[in-house]
Write a structure and sequence with these properties.
Elements lengths: L8 E6 L6 H10 L4 E4 L3 H8 L10 H11 L2 E4 L8 E6 L15 H6 L11 E4 L7 H11 L5 E4 L9 H7 L2 E4 L3 H11 L6 E4 L1 H31 L4 H9 L19 H11 L5 H24 L6 E5 L14 H12 L2 E5 L12 H7 L2 E4 L15 E2 L12
Parallel strand pairs: 1-2, 1-4, 2-3, 4-5, 5-6, 7-8, 9-10, 9-11, 11-12
């Protein structure tokens, strides 16, 4: 990857010490790029500069250490480093508010903190999921400052835990107003993959929202099936196993489980807002997926006196093998049980940010009832004589609650 004249580095990642930005920075540095990470978290920046990861991500640790040691990657809390790189990759979270409304100004507002350091000739890549039209909004913001900066929306498509392989294996969508911008974005991500898909910015914005909404709706359909079967005293997983066996038209049916995390729900609501809240499928999916913890508790309450029971929740993160608790439905489950049960205990082998978590053996010993909230591999083969609500079918037995 060649360095443009007038720039000392090829890439700077704004918000680059997070779960999306840092794997990208590490992967590009590993492929020979000179990379800067800009982040407002002093603790995360210090850790990165020491060669440490602020979170778990398989295969990223050794490559980060090597990149820092060689000088290929450096992190800073100083926004002036943005001026040093030709390619500015923006990775900033875009949550919905408590009313499920997106904030289209979130990215322009965040960029204002380092806007004085943007330079003519740079390529700005918006990487985080955005409300449709935000790319155009950023273009207008930069033009209003008199800057000649090309803007491209190139959505991240990785899943936590597989970032270091998927960055190299998955096709990358790139976009731009003109062929020059598209070519520049394609060259940037061509360092990682030769599978480049070109779109217009608004097409790329919707492509990202459609992807996550589709997954959210698919999971909701299965969770609804689970509720129907369970409420009739039937084992959903036996039904699913039977209908999918050697039947190609059902092979894409996933198992039931808590559909959570920082993306699927949020992006479905962003798409709904974009369509003037006329998104019946998306809103129905939200009701099903967000209602699953309450359904599990209600089913348990039909068979057990929760008011005299200690309930142990196995798993706190939003997905298996992860330490990320953002938007985890395990905590919604815990809140519901706090009103119903005599006592609620929680454990997770990966999460380190919750001081209330207990060791697994202690939760197993003290609990009267167990709920598998996260399908961590550590729970497979778990033997217990206590009632277990196992939506995920981790224990490979009757999943009725």
């Amino acid at each position: 990857m060649e360095r443009a004249e007038g720039f000392s580095h090829q890439v700077v990642v704004i918000g680059g010490a997070g779960r999306v930005g840092l794997p990208l920075a590490v992967a590009m540095a590993d492929r020979g790029a000179s990379v800067l990470v800009y982040d407002v978290s002093e603790a995360a920046v210090a850790l990165v500069n020491d060669g440490g990861l602020p979170f778990d991500e398989p295969e990223a640790g050794p490559k980060l250490k090597a990149a820092v040691s060689s000088g290929a990657l450096r992190a800073s809390t100083d926004p002036s480093v943005v001026a040093l790189a030709e390619n500015v990759v923006v990775v900033i979270g875009t949550p919905v508010d408590e009313h499920l409304n997106p904030d289209p100004q979130a990215i322009p507002r965040a960029l204002a903190a380092c806007a004085d350091f943007f330079r003519d000739g740079q390529l700005m890549v918006l990487r985080s999921t955005v409300f449709p039209g935000v790319t155009a909004l950023v273009e207008r913001m930069l033009a209003g400052r008199g800057l000649a900066v090309d803007v491209s929306f190139c959505p991240e498509r990785i899943a936590e835990g597989t970032a270091m392989t998927e960055l190299l294996e998955l096709p990358q969508i790139v976009s731009g107003r003109d062929q020059r911008t598209i070519a520049r974005a394609a060259a940037l991500f061509g360092v990682l993959t030769d599978q480049i898909i070109e779109m217009e910015p608004e097409e790329a914005e919707l492509a990202k929202l459609f992807t996550n909404s589709w997954r959210y709706i698919k999971f909701a359909a299965v969770n609804q099936f689970y509720m129907i079967a369970t409420s009739r005293g039937l084992d959903f997983e036996r039904i699913r196993a039977g209908l999918t066996q050697n039947y190609p038209r059902a092979q894409d049916m996933p198992g039931a489980g808590f559909s959570a995390g920082p993306c699927l729900f949020k992006d479905t609501m962003q798409l709904a807002a974009f369509n003037d809240n006329n998104f019946a499928l998306g809103h129905s999916a939200m009701l099903v997926n967000e209602g699953l913890p309450l359904f599990v508790v209600s089913q348990l309450a039909q068979h057990h006196d929760l008011s005299t029971s200690t309930v142990g929740i196995l798993g706190a993160s939003f997905k298996a093998g992860s330490d990320d608790i953002r938007s985890s439905l395990a905590y919604k489950l815990k809140r519901i049980l706090s009103f119903k049960a005599a006592r609620v205990l929680m454990t997770d082998p990966y999460v380190t940010v919750d001081p209330e978590l207990l060791p697994l053996d202690q939760v197993l010993e003290l609990s009267d009832i167990l709920i598998v909230a996260t399908p961590h591999p550590e729970y497979r083969g778990l033997l217990t004589d206590k009632p277990v609500a196992d939506v995920w079918n981790v224990l490979r037995q009757d999943v009725r609650t």
